[in-house]
Amino acid sequence: MVHKYTLEIxxxxxxxxxxxxxxxTSSTMSGAEFSGSDTVGSGLIAELSGIPExxxxxxxxxxxxxxxxxxxxxxxxxxxxxxxxxxxxFGYWIGQKKNA
Length: 100
Description:
elongated, 68% helix
């Protein structure tokens, strides 16, 4: 027998598992600094090639927002658009279940 809320139960389990994994890894990394893939990649290239890391520059320069408030606003906008997208997908799924 297929449970009525199978997709919802699996989603909740996946979210809880992700949170547990994140909390476990962040608690075991004491004193670790978070850095982007650009920093890690250029550091590894500098280490392997022997060329100082200061000589590397990205092919496409990154835009730096003029203030922290604008950066936070753009991040909030990105989160809102993502939330609307995820809500739309779940709404569509629920609508399809009701019509079927």
